[in-house]
Design a protein that fits this description.
Layout: H1 5-22, E1 28-29, H2 30-36, H3 44-60, E2 65-68, E3 77-80, H4 82-85, H5 94-106, E4 107-109, H6 114-122, E5 143-145, H7 151-160, E6 164-170, E7 173-179
Parallel strand pairs: 4-5
Antiparallel strand pairs: 1-3, 2-3, 6-7
Length: 191
């Protein structure tokens, strides 16, 4: 299954929704989500169906969406309590932080150079360059780990312990195969 533009749009819309729900203490009403969060249809019924699907998807991923009851259904709001969702600061020591920086400076995953900076930010590894915790070793990229959209369902199958079916071209023609992947390896530049 190769992600389509629609699945990329859905992912982006859901991440924008998650950001909006996380960025409020009192909650955000559905009508405000429709107006402020990019990717939702202006048609009320279409918006409502998409919004409900997105909430269901986020809940299934473990996002603790809270419903803040209003006096009427129109005043009902939604939020994500950051303290119940965000990872705590891992409390990395200076040497652990340096190792993390070094590791992230030596590889590129995917195509966006900002991905590694975002990963460091999420892991609590962002430091001020003038700080004593700063690595100060300009290594530069040593290798690139290719990111192929067809790997997404395989990684998902490994983590969910599911069977994956695919077609491929063999010496006898097109064949179909079902496998239950236990893990994925990256060796010599290939998955």
């Amino acid at each position: 299954m190769i992600p389509t533009d629609k699945s990329a749009e859905k992912f982006e819309r859901q991440m924008n929704l998650l950001a909006a729900l996380s960025d409020t203490v009192q909650g955000i009403r559905a009508v405000d989500v429709q107006q402020r969060v990019p990717g939702y249809n202006a048609d009320h019924d279409s918006f409502r169906r998409t919004f409900e699907r997105d909430k269901k998807d986020l809940l299934s991923l473990g996002v603790p969406i809270e419903v803040v009851a209003g006096a009427t259904a129109d005043l009902t709001a939604y939020r994500v309590d950051k303290s119940k969702y965000e990872l705590p600061d891992p409390g990395l020591e200076s040497d652990e932080l340096a190792a993390l920086h070094l590791a992230l400076e030596t590889v590129t995953v995917g195509s966006s150079p900002g991905d590694m900076a975002r990963a460091m930010w999420r892991l609590g590894g962002v430091v001020d360059a003038s700080s004593s915790d700063s690595v100060g070793i300009p290594v530069g990229e040593l290798t690139e780990i290719p990111s192929d959209s067809s790997l997404i369902p395989l990684f998902r199958a490994v983590t969910e312990r599911r069977v994956v079916s695919f077609t491929y071209e063999s010496s006898t023609g097109i064949s179909q195969r079902s496998v239950e992947p236990w893990h994925l390896d990256f060796k010599r530049g290939r998955w």
